[in-house]
Structures are given as C-alpha cells and as structure tokens.
Amino acid sequence: MVTSITSFGRSGLYDWMVQRVTAVVLVAYAVFMIFYLAFGDELTFEQWKGLFDGTAMRIFTLLALLSMAAHAWIGLWSVSTDYIKPTGARFLFQSVCGLLTFIYVVWGIQILWGI
Amino acid sequence: MLVSVYRYNPETDDAPYMQDIHIDIPGGKDIMVLDLLQLLKDKDPSMAYRRSCREGVCGSDGMNMNGKNGLACITPLSAVVEKDKLVLRPLPGLPVVRDLVVDMGQFYKQYEKIKPFLINDTPAPAIERLQSPEERAELDGLYECILCACCSTACPSFWWNPDKFVGPSGLLQAYRFLADSRDTATRERLAELDDPFSVFRCHGIMNCVSVCPKGLNPTKAIGKIRNMLLQQAT
Ligand code: SF4
Ligand code: SF4
Ligand code: FES
C-alpha cells in the first residue's frame, strides 16, 4: 500500500472510478453541445440565454463543470507524480493546478447563475 | 554484421558508451543473440552479461535488443537484426551494474510486496490441498512467469515510479495468488493494492504484453485485479 495524501480520493479505485464517470459526463455534455450548435436553428442571443435559463441545463452544466475539475485534477496529479520528481516543484505544480481549478469552478458558477 | 553494445564498467569508465564491433556470423544456422554474445566474449572477455539455462527458462538474460526487450537465448538473430545491425542495451530503467548486467533489486522488492506465496489459515489437511481441474486452470497464463523483468522494464509507469508501481510482472503474480482457490488472503491482498499507485498507475498501453517472452498477458491480469477491487467496493 502506497499512501498518498494529495490524490483525489486517496484510494486508487475511487480515483479511477471518478475519472471514468466524469469522462462519460464530459462526453455527454460535449455531444449535446455539438448537436445543439450544429443542428439547431440559427443561434440568437435570446435562444442561447434561454437555454441556460432552464434549471435542467444549469444542473447539467454544473455537473460538467465539476466533472471537468475532478477529471483535470486526477489527470494532472498523475502527470505530476510521473514526471516531476523534486517534491517542492511537484507540490508547487499541484498547488497551482488546485488553485486554478478552484477559480474556474467559482467563476463558472458565477457566470452560470449570473445569466 | 555490426553489433553495437552498451558498455560500462563503473571501476574504469567515467560514463557508459556504445561499443561498435564488426563480427562475422558463422553461416549455416540462425544463431541466437546469446550465441552472438558468446562470440563477442571470446574476442573480449571483459564483456559482462547474465545467462544460465540458455533455453528461456531461468529468465537471467533479459536485455534490450534493437529497442525491444526479450531473452537473448531464445531470440534468433533473424528476428531482431535490421540492416545487418544489432544494438544491445541492458534492460531500461534499472541501475546498470556492468555492461548488460542490471541491478534487479527494485524489481524484486515489488515482487516481495505482493507476498508471492500461498496464504491459507485453515488447518492443513493430511495430504494436500486439492483443487478441481477448473480451479487449477485459473492459474494458467499466470504461473508460467519466469521473472525475467522484460515486461516491467518496458513499462513507462514502472520507469517513472519503480518504488511505488508494482509493475506488470509483480501484478501478474499478485493475480496468480488472488486467483488461487487455495488462498484465503484475498481481502488483505486487495486492500494492499487499492492505492493510486500499486495497480492504478497502469495505463493499459500493453508494452508488457508485446515483450513477454513467455507470451503472458499482464494487462489482462491487471484488469482482473481491478475488477476484483471494483466488485469488493460496490
Ligand atoms: S510476465 Fe513475462 S516478461 Fe514479465 S517477468 Fe514474467 S515472463 Fe518475464
Ligand atoms: S499495460 Fe500497464 S503494466 Fe503493461 S506496460 Fe502498460 S502501463 Fe505497464
Ligand atoms: S539464459 Fe535462461 S532464460 Fe535465457
């Protein structure tokens, strides 16, 4: 057993599962968006705003946003433990990633509910 | 033909170097890379490599031949030589002791970690612990591993984290005991493996499968361990 306190959920299985589930959510969101933009009518501001006014769309978007955050954290954490060997540099990299992720989540929520 | 061999003697060399040697191969038969090494050693007795059984059983002569790991004793020249040239290097990712000889300490440490022995806390029967032919068949494709380290030293995840990632060879053996009907320590074994490194550092690129000289499939075994962990946790 290798202990690790900076991974997402401490258990390898948990991280692995989260990575898979969030990937599915992200694919679903991406496919939805591509279809909406490609096959919908001419996009107007009202229509775009209307889309994000609905509670369902907000839930879906928030889910995708949180999935993105978790997915990115697990992925970048793995990359950093593979390639950045000095502990200080690795910790710095992980801190920057964590901070950026947090900022994006808060910012995303603000945009989503600010419409 | 031209053979380029990795040479390093820490007592006399400042740094490793590649030595180019032109050598005539006796015609008539397709000799093995190990035979070629013997020819090189006849010329230069300081050349160091390991070998023992010379028939793919002991696992001591794992090395990197033209970029691919394998056992020198069962690899014919015709299978690896390209444009009349052969590059021989030690197994990648492990410290070099001398020339083609690597320090396998890290590799064995991972093997030790998975407790490669049968654990059974029920009283021993008078004669032996029996298995049905089906139960025994579960171990096929697992027990044949000769610990040559060709797979683990071809695995990028093992290169980056040889102290934390068990590696394909160790995990194949871990599954060999998880799959054994006579072993009662399944829970403890799985608990030891459920961290972000031991098993889950495998990204399934299957380098291990492509090099295993015994034709084994560590990636499949790793998948089965993952499924066992999943089953236990959900
Ligand atoms: S799985 Fe194959 S390559 Fe790996 S140590 Fe065993 S025999 Fe060698
Ligand atoms: S499949 Fe897994 S164990 Fe095999 S080489 Fe790839 S990362 Fe390593
Ligand atoms: S010498 Fe034993 S496996 Fe090659």
Automatic annotation (TrEMBL), chain B:
List the GO molecular function terms: 2 iron, 2 sulfur cluster binding; 3 iron, 4 sulfur cluster binding; 4 iron, 4 sulfur cluster binding; electron transfer activity; metal ion binding; succinate dehydrogenase (quinone) activity
Gene3D superfamilies linked to this entry: 3.10.20.30, Alpha-helical ferredoxin
Extract one GO BP annotation from the record: tricarboxylic acid cycle
Pfam families, alphabetically? Fer2_3, Fer4_17
Which pathway, metabolic or otherwise, does it act in? Carbohydrate metabolism; tricarboxylic acid cycle; fumarate from succinate (bacterial route): step 1/1
Cofactor section: [3Fe-4S] cluster; [2Fe-2S] cluster; [4Fe-4S] cluster
In terms of superkingdom, the source organism counts as: Bacteria
**Which Enzyme Commission numbers does its entry carry?**
1.3.5.1
Keyword 4Fe-4S on entry: yes
Top EC group:
oxidoreductase
Kindly state which keywords UniProt assigns to this record, in alphabetical order: 2Fe-2S, 3Fe-4S, 4Fe-4S, Electron transport, Iron, Iron-sulfur, Metal-binding, Oxidoreductase, Transport, Tricarboxylic acid cycle
Q: Where is the 4Fe-4S ferredoxin-type domain?
A: 135-165
Q: What does this protein do?
A: Two distinct, membrane-bound, FAD-containing enzymes are responsible for the catalysis of fumarate and succinate interconversion; the fumarate reductase is used in anaerobic growth, and the succinate dehydrogenase is used in aerobic growth.
Its family remark reads: Belongs to the succinate dehydrogenase/fumarate reductase iron-sulfur protein family.
Kindly provide the name given to this protein in its UniProt entry. Succinate dehydrogenase iron-sulfur subunit
The upper taxonomy is: Bacteria, Pseudomonadati, Pseudomonadota, Gammaproteobacteria, Oceanospirillales
